[in-house]
Inverse folding.
């Protein structure tokens, strides 16, 4: 089993939570990949530098100033701190963006039909599962920042959930064994009632999902997260889980 | 022949000069490693954020705020831009710090006898030449930022000349073939008269060096650069060159 684990900004940007996550991550057996976000630190740095953070539908508009910020924060600050802290825990981590060894090929997102230009935001074309697998076979633990390049010399900003899905699917396509994908966030998993942590839904199939969206139980940012999960399953990933850093084997299991 | 090429901040921070360098770098035959600086961008970013850049004898004092800056700038911005631009030129680059795959082991520099605390500045203990060589054998071109870690979870700032020397020496210790080390900077090489680019000294032996320092021809920051060069030669590096980005095979050859 190869484990691909994605952690969002709220976890990686809080030293105490990051320490808990990394302690749990170290315990995960077998080859593993960590994919991280870092959006809050990027927004904070942009604010300090007088650069406005523009969001459309929860997605960041990445102009050239913002691209510099996310390249610094995701590719440098957050990524290398995780690498250093994993090394201190005896995990031989390698920080990567999709540009490194060309592991993720992408193109700049075209202007949308509604006329929105997301700027230096990438849509993924392909990923090199063999190269990632080769690292794992050499005892290396990739730590992937949500960035890649356009093949023309520019870096591109990638949604971190998408990056995790991309890595898991690419590994599925070259692995004989199973690949699991785990999305970690603040809550214990998908909840029936967002205000009640005890209302965890332990398992969601694709037909459950349709019903839960129809009756309003699942809404907002959870919808694209679950759509990502199902598309990963359809592309060969064995299991997808949405959970909390303190319970990497628990939370909500997403199944076909 | 394995080539280790170091470029300073003035080159990597000017898009036009960087393009020239990368065009020349692509032409270098055989396995190669690029080591870069980025100090000016770090100083600029620190100034914008109201963080004071403290220098002692040309060396940066790296407190925790400055460590965040250099981790962002060297490990993120400068490193990933070079990687993206090498990928666009068909070179399969991999951006690294010494923390990645633990390729450079270091410790935090102790407070000097004069009472100077350089902060998060590293002194190198060892480097993993085998791991770097393995990358080269897999067709990967490492692009190394002047950063590493202390094994306790902290990143450390490393002098870029020292990082280049470390990589070259580590490769020499595991390679059957020759390893060359090239320091690129603004001038055509070591000059007899700093104001006259035609006064290039094409070759400097260790005894020449002593005479040139004694008569004042070589002074200031060139002295530690040449000392680094001789120590690399004594540690097994085949040849060291100090030159300009437009003449990677020219400039001043340093020999025992």
């Amino acid at each position: 089993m190869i484990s691909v684990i994605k952690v969002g900004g709220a976890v990686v940007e809080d030293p105490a939570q990051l320490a808990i996550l990394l302690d749990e991550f170290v315990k995960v057996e077998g080859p593993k990949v960590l994919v991280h976000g870092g959006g809050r630190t990027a927004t904070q740095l942009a604010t300090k530098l007088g650069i406005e953070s523009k969001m459309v539908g929860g997605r960041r508009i990445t102009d050239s100033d913002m691209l510099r910020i996310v390249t610094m924060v995701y590719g440098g600050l957050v990524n290398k701190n995780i690498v250093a802290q994993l090394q201190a825990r005896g995990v031989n981590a390698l920080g990567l963006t999709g540009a490194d060894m060309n592991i993720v090929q992408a193109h700049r997102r075209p202007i949308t039909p509604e006329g929105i230009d997301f700027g230096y935001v990438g849509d993924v074309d392909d990923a090199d599962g063999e190269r990632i697998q080769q690292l794992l076979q050499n005892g290396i633990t990739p730590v992937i920042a949500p960035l890649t390049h356009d093949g023309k010399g520019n870096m591109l900003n990638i949604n971190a959930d998408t990056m995790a899905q991309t890595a898991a699917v690419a590994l599925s396509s070259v692995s004989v064994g199973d690949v699991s994908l785990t999305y970690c966030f603040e809550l214990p998993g998908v909840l029936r009632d967002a205000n009640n942590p005890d209302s965890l839904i332990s398992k969601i199939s694709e037909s459950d999902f349709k019903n839960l969206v129809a009756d309003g139980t699942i809404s907002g940012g959870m919808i694209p997260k679950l759509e990502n999960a199902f598309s990963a399953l359809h592309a060969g990933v064995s299991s997808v889980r949405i959970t909390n850093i303190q319970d990497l084997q628990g939370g909500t299991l997403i199944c076909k």
